[in-house]
Amino acid sequence: MNFKGYTKETLSFMSDLLFNNNKKWFENNRERFEKYVKEPTVDLVYDIGNILYEYTENINCEPLPGKALFRINNNMRFSKIPYKKYYGFFVWEGPNKFKMDNSGFYFYFDSEKVFISCGIHQMNKNYTENFRRSIFSTIAYNELYKLYLKGIKKKLCICEDSLKRTPSGYNENLFIKKKTLYFYRVFPYDILTDKDLSGIITETYINSISMHEWIKRHVYI
């Protein structure tokens, strides 16, 4: 295993960045970012990727910024601060060029929490239509409902509804107001330095990978 864990210095950097989000400070502290934030995340992606390859061979997990790794820099066309307040990775499997339109395995941390999830965080128009048709198929709906119940038993949360009202032309059911579909868990930020963090992430992904497989069967069509 490559991942040796995050440290208190990781937590310290993320807390400091929260109050010093400017280019001058970041450049003066870039070495801290590389050593305590980026490098262990690269190692974590390698390890998680090797485990996920046992379950799905087409996973995209290249540990580079803009690939599996998050970019720490914000796009200043859409943000007033130069750097993200969080860091992590997203490894994915799917046909879409824009990675976040695919289902995958998501991990990030900031100065307050650690977030781990599996599934699709945004559905494009075609996927939304496929999803809605699928959940009005008795077989697909029953599969998803069973996954939902199993997820609850394994202490997984399911994403909240995206819509306040049932879409026009559809009947009410448990999932129809969703435009995202993923299981997730949230932990306090100090779990980041837990010696078994990699195991916690892996367990969450394995417990929720059935959601990823359901999406591949019923949304990627």
Structure characterization notes:
The protein is α+β, with helices and mostly antiparallel strands and 221 residues long. It has a single domain (8-218), classed as BirA Bifunctional Protein, domain 2 (2-Layer Sandwich). The protein has helices at 8-19, 23-28, 30-52, 125-134, 138-153, 197-218, and strands at residues 87-93, 103-109, 113-120, 157-158, 181-188. The chain has a five-stranded antiparallel sheet with strand order 1-2-3-5-4. It is globular and about 55 Å long.
Order of helices and strands: HHHEEEHHEEH
What is the topology, as strand order, of the major beta sheet?
A: 1-2-3-5-4
Number of domains: 1
Strand content: 5-15%
From the helix content, strand content and strand pairing, which structural class follows?
Answer: alpha+beta
N-end to C-end Cα span: 36 Å
Q: For the report, how would you describe the main beta sheet?
A: 5 strands, antiparallel
Please give the radius of gyration in angstroms. Answer: 18 Å
Total number of helical segments? 6
Proportion in helices: 40-55%
Show unreliable segments.
none
What's the CATH architecture name? 2-Layer Sandwich
Mean pLDDT: 95
What is the CATH class name?
A: Alpha Beta
| Oligomerization status of the protein chains | single chain
**Global outline:** globular
Instruction: Write the CATH fold name.
Output: BirA Bifunctional Protein, domain 2
Number of E-type strands: 5
